[in-house]
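Before relying on records like the one below, remember that each one covers exactly one chain. Contacts with other chains, cofactors or solvent are not represented anywhere in the record.
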Amino acid sequence: MKFGAQFWAGVLFRFPRLYPEWDIAVSSITPAISPSLVPVTVIGGFLGTGKTTLLNEVLSSQTGIRYAVMVNDFGSLAVDDALVKAHDGDTISFANGCVCCSLGDNLIKSIDALLERDPKPEQFLIEVSGVANPKAIADVATLHPGLRRDLIITLVDAETVMERAGDPRLADTLSMQLVPADLIVLNKCDLVGDTKLARVCSYLSDLYPSQMVRTVHSRLPVEYLSAKVLTDPLEPKLDLGKSEPATQSSHDPESQFYRCTVNLPDNMMCDQLRALLREHQSSLLRAKGFVYDEQGTLVSIQLSGNQIEVQSHFDGAGEFSGGSSKPYLVAIGLVPLDAFKQAVLANLCQ
């Protein structure tokens, strides 16, 4: 019986360094990664962990890398119009060489369109929804012959992860997102004290032995968007570990969440909506949208974890840059949101 090079490569990797010269043999028969393949980094994490904030930072920075950023919702982006070079339908080109498009229904078709650009992207960053399995998206993306899988990054909210993990309705979804992660980004560390932060770090390290880095406001050094960081760790040395392979599961996270969208009239004020979000916070996992403030300025409002954030989306010239020019709200919860929607509508009638 004859055995090919692929078989012997497998044997040599399973019995490393029995003889030093085997290292040479392995490198000579293992196919090298083609430099023409564009690396893909998938960015996952539960609702409100800071995925879009991370991508906003990338699109607003001079990284020297031509990223193709694929997002779920253009309206979530908060990038200054001065940085936008062109806006063509579902695609935005930036002065720093990056391009951004909506994820859409056909991932492969969207990737094709981006790869046809001249010059073509040097790396793909794909944001998945807050209840999606990042491994599933990475697997689909790397079916494309022009791409290779580089990294799965999962963001975690330091303030709420323990509470979410203890909820039997959410535990499977969190595990599904964390198990395949090559890098865990523990975000919003400024919202917890040292004792709780240490407890969260210990919990994550025990269950998910991936590399982990702590951040505030999703400020992640660009080097961490590449798998190179796993073999060449940056400043203080981080604990490295290999992720456990994701197991097959029939779990459908989308089926256990409830979603509602409300078109808000111009007379709904930011303070009113903020009060309603606080009142119904126990039934909401995430909410985001646009509403007018008391000065008549359209602002974004987001409920994420225990925090409600309001942000202006006007640039210095007074032009709106938030992706939507009408007030609306999208909310997601674990229970039907009829009561919340009725409360919003009742408030509108007052």
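Residues 194-207 form the longest helix (14 residues).
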